[in-house]
Write a structure and sequence with these properties.
Blueprint lengths: L5 H19 L4 H9 L6 E6 L6 H5 L6 E6 L13 H12 L4 E7 L3 H7 L8 H6 L4 H10 L5 H20 L3 H8 L4 E8 L4 E6 L4 E4 L9 H5 L5
Parallel strand pairs: 1-2, 1-3, 3-4
Antiparallel strand pairs: 4-5, 5-6
Helix pairs in contact: 4-9, 7-8
């Protein structure tokens, strides 16, 4: 796929804004107005990768006010005290100020960040990315220790999963998170989104495995039914 010129890229975004206003906002006007007039009360903090193929609201069929989202290269969560900044601030705000009930860390298949972790030599011209990926190095160590003979594809898939588990461990080091978990007021979950197949695999503590979320038909709630994610 060739890159768009800046003018074409801007027009693509503006066309989307126009369609949103015409087709989406007009059908859900009251919900948006209600969201704008009340303090936000999201039920979930959703931490995922900046990869452009991921749409958290579409994936979870969430509407305005439902989920609080933060994204970065590799869906990483630096351990508390390490690289305090945007991610740490989002976590603290979501837990302490917004009172979210759960936090989801969502990795995904074909993750470029994890490919970069496997081939650090390709990051010589991206020193900031290279430094950021230090937050995932322990996951690579686990994979290499367990799966030294695995082929590249299997190794990448395993690394994507191990990285989610590592970031969950990092998440638990944040005081705001640890305190709420101790009070049983907060749950944390690890997901891997399979982009090509549309599956979400969720880590199951009981089995120590990522298990595919059952594809069972459910009656949409009013909030989900009103969300334009299927358009």
């Amino acid at each position: 796929m060739s890159h768009m010129s800046s003018g074409n890229a801007l027009e693509t975004l503006l066309d989307g804004v126009r369609r949103f206003r015409r087709e989406i906002y007009s059908q859900n006007r009251e919900r948006y107005r209600q969201a704008a007039s009340q303090p936000q009360r999201p039920h979930t903090l959703f931490i995922t990768c900046a990869d452009s193929r991921i749409d958290p609201e579409l994936l979870t069929q969430s509407g305005p006010g439902d989920i609080f989202v933060t994204r970065n290269i590799g869906n990483l969560v630096p351990a508390y005290g390490q690289m305090l900044g945007g991610v740490s601030s989002v976590i603290e705000y979501a837990v302490q100020a917004l009172g979210v009930a759960q936090i989801v860390i969502c990795g995904h298949t074909d993750c470029g960040a994890m490919k970069g972790l496997l081939h650090r030599e390709k990051l010589v011209n991206m020193p900031t990315v290279n430094a950021w990926l230090q937050n995932a190095e322990a996951a690579l160590s686990v994979v290499e220790a367990r799966d030294s003979a695995a082929n590249e594809t299997a190794k990448l898939d395993r690394l994507i999963e191990e990285n989610v588990l590592l970031q969950l461990n990092h998440l638990r080091t944040h005081p705001s998170v640890a305190g709420k978990i101790a009070q049983k007021k907060l749950a944390v979950y690890g997901w891997v989104y399979d982009i090509g197949n549309g599956h979400v695999n969720m880590y199951d503590d009981a089995t120590g495995r990522f298990v595919t979320v059952d594809d069972q038909p459910e009656t949409a709630s009013p909030a989900r039914a009103a969300h334009p994610a299927t358009t």
